[in-house]
Amino acid sequence: MRSPYTGGEIIRQVNDEELEFRGEAFIISYSNFKCVDSGKEFTTREIDELNMQFMHSAYRSKHNIPFPEEINEIRTKYDVNQTKMAEILGFGVNTYRNYENGTAIPVLSNAKLITLAAKPGGFIELVEECDSLSQKDKKKFISKAKTHIEYDAYPINEFLFKVLEPDSYTGYKKPSIHAFSEMVAFLAEDIEPYKVKMNKLLYYADSYHFKEHGQSISGACYQAIQMGPVPYKYGTLFEYGEELGYFTIKRTYFEEFDIEGEQFVSNKADFEHLSEIEISTLRLIKKELGHLPRKELERISHEEVGWLENEKERKMINYFSALLMKFPKD
Fold this sequence. Notes:
The chain has 330 residues and is of the alpha+beta class. Helices cover 48% and strands 15% of the residues.
């Protein structure tokens, strides 16, 4: 991108700004551009939309309001269509559709009902209280919800992820082992990287997607360690993803170095937990960074603000540092 004033170089600026939404003030990392030659500042439609999305995400995070993909997941796990889900929740169908496609943010009272429906017991309660549903539909929906009670009781996400709800350390995305594992499988295609390189590719994919689209892909937290940014508890995440069958980890012992190498081989041909735009980001990261040697990826990751500000104390990396990422080049 070039300056609209001179055609010359521009820089992206990020500053804390206070914006207001629904009567509340939120401090967000606000982006704009500056023309190097003229000093003039400007924004684009895409950056304005991203800034607005960050404010909306901060509001959702503060009040535990489900994000659109969460609302969709709640409905689809019970095999309910949008019309019936709106009926069960007591919303107008257009209101519910807007919540699910992200064109509207639920008011707090409606958000509480959606959150209640996320738990099978809460969903069953809502179905039982819905007088407009037929007995046939009630029986069907309650039967489906009961199949999730035992599954939802096993707190696998609490074991796998440091942060469970969307915030600035998950990239405003609810963590998903399935999305994370499909990221690994997609990145492993063709290049079959070893563990250190895979960690860096995952960091750049999640961070770049946040920078461009306002959300991460996996919802994973990243920690700054000596060798660069890595997914928190990456060993456990990789082991679980392998158990689920998304990829295979080939373990090779290198006698001369007295170490075991772990190489990732994809087992997936389709990626149902990734959107087309998320796959586009992964494809870009693989194209721009996938060919780089491990040591080069380590070196460039050490130039990123997210690592520089957190490595000394091995802290978690706030996704907003991605707005100042140096790689891949815009």
